[in-house]
Amino acid sequence: MDRANYSVAYELKNMLVNRIADRHFREMSSRYLHGRLIDIGCGIKPYREVLAPLVAAHIGVDHEGSLHDRSNMDLTGTAYSIPAPDGSFDSALCTAVLEHLEEPERAIRECHRVLKQGGMAIYSVPFIWHLHEEPRDFYRYSKYGLKYLFEKCGFEIVELRALSGFWVTFGQMLVYYLYTFNRGPLRWIPIIPALGLLIQGVSFVLDWLHCREEWTWMYMLAARKRESSG
Ligand SMILES: C[S@@+](CC[C@H](N)C(=O)[O-])C[C@H]1O[C@@H](n2cnc3c(N)ncnc32)[C@H](O)[C@@H]1O
User: Rounded to two decimals, what is the model's pTM?
Assistant: First the structure.
């Protein structure tokens, strides 16, 4: 599949979850992010436009082996070793990265190091999601695990949101499963993308009618570096 077709397929497949995540991110970023921001595991910097009016600088760091377009990286480093001095950022962003790290606690401590006292971080982390970016896919997180980890590393959780209930998660899993058949001659008939959109629409309505957050596909959290933490 060429690059343009790949991104169209990706957008269609993820339309619902991307829209939900975007809506929550817009609300939370406008509330918590400002000043110099470090985007840890920035990938293609998908939130660049949302952040532009909010922050003074948006600095992306990603590792050398990243599978994403490297033109968005400002710094080459890892989540464990960000090439920046202590306390050099007002805000941090780390979306859909923590599950790809062997040692999440070390990475959260590194984020804590580069933030100023009182600095804010926004993370998004999957709870129910299929394997991706293999073999660098290590963990899934519950809200209790997240609270434990962030507090242990010197953060106070200010807000933690479950982004969906059962239906969006289940619908999205079904869409991904169906897309595994979108190959060979089937690729030329848009039956699976059409079915995918229908499933996403129905899932959205069902989740709106009955949302059970214990089946969320993703959490988004805002955490503050505690004033007194060393
Ligand atoms: C699913 S992508 C998310 C990218 C982006 N944050 C987003 O929201 O679209 C995971 C990102 O984590 C990065 N990553 C994986 N291991 C890393 C590490 N040890 N240090 C820094 N980034 C890492 C990958 O290169 C990739 O850009």
Answer: 0.92
